[in-house]
Amino acid sequence: MSPTKSLPLIEPVADEAVEPCCPPLTERTFTAEEAERTAKMFKALGDPVRLRLFSAVASHESGEACVCDISDVGVSQPTVSHHLKKLKEAGLLTSERRGTWVYYRVEPSVVAAMGRLLTGAPSGVS
């Protein structure tokens, strides 16, 4: 049996400025570019399998999840990979390859911006 080695987790920088994707819905009408960007994120979450995968990553105890831990969503492994790719393309997840496995993390700045978009909370309030 080979010895295992723990890899350090990359912590998000707390002071990192969060650039919102768009203004709150109640602030003003979206530009065409803002609407396109926002629709892409919500479309990615509009699929039940993607929403389950996103939830599995977001609720994982370490803040990140190995694809091996979240792939039991009732579809084949290639389909899981396709859905994770769509979530990454929408900017909702980031990933890091470690050996043969890929670990996924929720992109906190995007999720915070989406929350502000829906609630109308000012940028400085979480």
UniProtKB/TrEMBL annotation:
The keyword Transcription applies. The lineage of its organism: Bacteria, Bacillati, Actinomycetota, Actinomycetes, Kitasatosporales. This is ArsR/SmtB family transcription factor. Gene3D superfamilies: Winged helix-like DNA-binding domain superfamily/Winged helix DNA-binding domain. InterPro entries: ArsR-like_HTH, HTH_ArsR_DNA-bd_dom, HTH_MetalResp_TranReg, WH-like_DNA-bd_sf, WH_DNA-bd_sf. Keywords: DNA-binding, Transcription, Transcription regulation. It comes from Streptomyces longisporoflavus. Residues 30-126 form the HTH arsR-type domain. NCBIfam families: HTH_metalloreg. Pfam families: HTH_5. PANTHER family: ARSENICAL RESISTANCE OPERON REPRESSOR, TRANSCRIPTIONAL REGULATOR, ARSR FAMILY.
